[in-house]
Amino acid sequence: MGERIVEERGGRAGFAALARIALLVVAVVVGGREVRAQGQMSQPGVPSEINVVENYSTGGLVEIVIPNMATGFQEKCLVYMPFDSLHLGPRPVLVVFHPFGQNHMDAYDDTDLVEECRARGWFLISPLGASKKGFSSLTSQANQEFVIEGVVEAFAPWVDYTRIYGIGFSMGAGDAAAYAARHLDPFDPLFAALFLHTGSMDKAYGWQTNPGTQWIHEFWTGGTPSQVPFEYERVSPIKVDSFTGLLLPGTHLGTNLQHVPNKTYIADDDPNFELKQQAYALVQYQAGFPSGDFAYEFDTTDYSALPLAHTWDTLDQGAALDWLAQRQLRLPDSGRLRVDVDDHQYWWFRVKQDQLGAFTDFDWSVDTAANTVSVTGSENLGGVRIPYSLMGFQPGPLTITTGSADGTSDVFIVSGLGAAPTAVLRNGAPAQQGTHFNYNAVADMLLLYGTPASVDWTVTP
Fold it and tell me: Using CA atoms, how far apart are residues 439 and 445, in angstroms rounded to an integer?
């Protein structure tokens, strides 16, 4: 299925403005000059400035300024573009998420990551994310998404979509994990792996333990954790006890990271105890997953010579990228999904919720070789759309298993059949059109009306 998705990428109308970035960046790097776009405020998403940071023999490092964002928050990003002849063909991309109080230039000023990407011939993208203190907020993620997707699309012929990596430190590690957990559309860039350095994984716990940041969290979420708990949980990979910092039971947003190989790093000398607690709690949560590629490193090196051990400098950044480089995107074929946005694409499913402002959860599996799809154990699910024509099923009948855990009936839409099905069976018996299913010829959609109980549908194209 992964190859199918790669073929379908490109040509997204939403990034028409950013499609010019590649040519602009090349002009800046080669010409060594600053570009200022005209009329940028009337053209959302168009850069107003592209400033040269460094011009290397191997590529160019530029700062891109985008003032007119849909979020209302100006976005800036740092982009390294390799173009030397030693690194031909599609190259990996490293996305760097900065810590609290820093900005997009942190990757250049405080890390070795630009140099590491230069040595490997990788692209590097370091977004501001709307603010130095974004804390994985929806606004911050919207700006990050625009930059990541726009730059990747702009350089699409030179990007290896199966090797897009994320790395973050402190607040940035929490940003990387939250972003990956909420961005699961296989038609957009997906992280093949993450490297997480001592991250803030529970924003409600951060509000509780760091009073100086409470007003920042409340600004982004619209209230305190007790007033708007969902707004905190939807940007937090895990939940920990507000008093002990220990992992709480239950399903957390981080369940969506089961498919993403990731490594958590913590230095023993790091003085930020609350962040170390949260980072380790994520490790504990992932230990409960049925499978996955997760690693953990607790560094006991003496860092007393450093002015502060809560720093990028405790991490061997070259080794971190070596770890990432061994991973390649593999789309999952099953899992438990946690949805926080209505009418949005998650893996193969476009999900409609029964109730907004709450999570939707369900178990799923797809086997294109066996022509089977399963969506069961659903809570707060209104409906699911399955893109039959894009999934690479084999000729013959398709079996869909449905069922809810909350006592509601869900609607399942199979799109792209090309024509009305020749037969629809419900638990082995002919289904009744109008009662059990309908086919919309104009939209080319087959609607299956599920029940709270488990139903096995057999659809013959």
Answer: 6
